[in-house]
Amino acid sequence: MRAFIFPGQGSQAVGMGKALAEASAAAREVFQEVDEALGQHLSALMFEGPADELTLTANAQPAIMANAIATLRVLEKEGGLKLADKADYVAGHSLGEYTALCAAGALDLATTALLLRHRGEAMQAAVPVGEGAMAALLGADLSIAEKIAAAAAQGEVCTVANDNDPSQVVISGAKAAIDRAIEIAKDFGAKRAIALPVSAPFHCPLMQPAAEAMDKALADARIDTPLVPVFANVTAQPVSDVDTIRKLLVEQVTGMVRWRESVINMADTGVERFIEFGGKVLSPMVKRIVPDVDASSVISMDDIEALAKSF
Asked: What's the CATH class of domain 132-198?
C-alpha cells in the first residue's frame, strides 16, 4: 500500500517550481490557475523571490500547495497515471492537508489556493506580531514536550503544536512562555530548543480567531468526497466524510498536528511506501517514525520519471 504525502510551511524556497514549469505544460497550467485564482503573480514570486515576501504566511501557504500539486499533475498527465490507482491514502502536514485534499479531488485547485490565502491571512491577523512564538524541541518526544510546555506556561498559552517524529516536537504560544520553555528545555531532557523564524504561533489556542475565520470560509467552500481517504492532522485517522473533513480543518487551526501518530497509523493499516510531493521534509520524518518503510521525495522531473517507472 502507498500514501502520497504533502509538506507544510517552511518548505518554501525561491526557485521552487521553476524548473518544473520550464519542463512541463502540466506544471505551467497549475501555476497559471493559481495565479488567476489569487489575482497575483504568485508563480513569479516563487520562481524569482524575494525570499522575505515568499515567506509571508499568506504567500507561502498557497505557494507550497501549488508546487506540490504541480509535481503530482506532471506525474499524472505525463506519466499517464491516476492518484486513485496508485495511492491508498493521502496526508499532509498542516497546510499540506489542504494539498492532500486537492490531490484527492475533494477541493478544486482554485478553491484550495483561495482557502490557503485566507488561512494565511487569518493566522497572521490572529496574534499581533511579536506576541506569539514557536520553538522546536530536538531530542524530545511528546511526553517530554508536554512537560516542558506545562512548566513554561505560568498562566500563559504554551502547548504542543506539532508532534513531528520521536525526536522533534514543536511548541507554540505566548512569546514569554516560549522563551521560558527554551530556557528550561534541557532540564527536562531535551537536547536542544530552537526558536523558529515564524510570524505567528500556529496550532495553539491563540489561533482561535483564525479558526473562526476558517469556519466561515469552509462553510461556503465546495468539498467533494475524496478519491481516497485523507489522514487528518487532528485525529491521525482516515476520513472521507465531507462534513467531518470540514469540521476537522477548522479544528486543525488551533489543534496539534499529530504527524507521528498519523504515520504510525498509516503503517499499521499496511502502508509500506510513502511518497512526498514537492518537498523533502516529511520523508525523513517518516523514516525516523517507522524505519522499515520506503519513504521518498519527488521534486524534479528526474524524480517524477523515476517514480513513474517504479509503479
From this structure: alpha beta
Grid cell at residue 182: 527554551
Copy the grid coordinates of residue 164: 513531528
pLDDT tens digit string along 67-99?
999 999 999 998 889 999 999 999 999 999 999
CB 267 within 8 A of CB 284: no
Partner residues linked to 158 by β-bridges: 173
| Residues taking part in catalysis | 94, 203
> No. of H helices and E strands in the chain?
15, 10
Q: 235: buried, middle or exposed (CB in 10 Å: 19+, 13-18, 0-12)?
A: middle
pTM above 0.85, yes or no: yes
d(CA 163, CA 170): 7
Confidence class for position 11, pLDDT limits 50, 70, 90: confident
Strands 2-6 and 273-277 come out as parallel
Match domain 2-126+206-310 to its CATH number in 3.40.50.12160, 3.40.50.300, 3.40.50.1370, 3.40.366.10. 3.40.366.10
